[in-house]
Amino acid sequence: MMTRIILHGGYTSVWDGAGADHALFQKLIHAAEQTDGKVLISFLAYETPADWPFIDQLLATFHDLNPAIRVTIAGRDDFAELLPQHHVLFLQGGNSRGHHQALQTFTKEDLLHGKYLLAGSSSGATMLRKYGYSNS
């Protein structure tokens, strides 16, 4: 399977314009429709779920566009367990240092293995670049 990668620049502030950016979400949904109907969205740039921004808006946007898609939200505690169970991964943005720290134990191969689509927004996109977080 060839992995497609989307690097999204992000927004000027939290969720500013994201709800109207249906093209990005539709690409994630289309990839999920082509595979197992699931999308894994990670918030690795944040230490705890209490710090995750705009979860309700994010889930509502996916539901509005396609209620059949199952969206799973992953944090630092469960990312490693959930990663192999999904063919579509979306790395949300946030604190680049926090993102870097959370991904240090993963190789590029770990992220790419079995993925149909790998997308990142803001610091999530930076982490997907070659040597963004590791030397692998």
Structural commentary:
With 136 residues, the chain is α/β, with parallel strands linked by helices. It has six helices and five strands; from the N terminus they run βαβαβαβααβα. Strands 1-5-4-2-3 form a five-stranded parallel sheet. Helix 2 links the parallel strand 2 and strand 3 (70-74). The longest helix is centred in the N-terminal third of the chain and has 13 residues, at 22-34. The radius of gyration is 14 Å and the shape is globular. The two termini are 21 Å apart. The relative contact order is 0.24.
Can you describe this structure in just a few lines?
This protein is of the alpha/beta class and 136 residues long.
Indicate the overall shape: globular
Question: How are helices and strands ordered from N to C?
Answer: EHEHEHEHHEH
User: How many helical stretches?
Assistant: 6
Order of strands across the main sheet: 1-5-4-2-3
**Uncertain regions spanning at least 5 consecutive residues:** none
How many DSSP E strands? 5
Q: From the alpha-carbon coordinates, what is the Rg to the nearest angstrom?
A: 14 Å
Strand content: 15-25%
Question: Structural class, from secondary structure content?
Answer: alpha/beta
Mean pLDDT: 85
Described by strand count, sense and barrel closure, the largest sheet is: 5 strands, parallel
Our measurement of the CA-to-CA distance between the termini, rounded to an integer number of angstroms, reads 21 Å
The multimeric state of the shown protein is single chain
Helical content (DSSP H or I, runs of 4+): 25-40%
